Automatic annotation (TrEMBL):
PROSITE patterns: PROTEIN_KINASE_DOM. One of its GO terms (molecular function) is protein kinase activity. The lineage of its organism: Eukaryota, Metazoa, Ecdysozoa, Arthropoda, Hexapoda. Residues 1-76 form the Protein kinase domain. It comes from the Eukaryota. Gene3D superfamilies: Transferase(Phosphotransferase) domain 1. This is Protein kinase domain-containing protein. Transmembrane segments: none annotated. It holds the Pfam family PK_Tyr_Ser-Thr.
Amino acid sequence: DVYAFGTVWYELLCGEYPFKGQPPEAIIWQVGKGVKQSLANMQASRDIKDILMLCWSYRSSERPDFPHLLSTLEKLPRKRLARSPSHPVHLSRSADSVF
């Protein structure tokens, strides 16, 4: 469901889950009341934050469906990623010593 997608997307963007540090009962109560995780400290564009908030709409009828969500995401500007060269990892022990 789109709500769950928004939650996983938040975790990928922030490196932590929404409502971190709160007990499960408090999270369930907040989500049930329509409270959303604050995005004030999130390092993301306004467009991304708006899409995320739509995914977390209290009423499922107000959330975008996946085809609409995909279309919206595809319209976002793409950012080139700088990649560092990959180097093989040197293991300190042989495979024989592991087994």
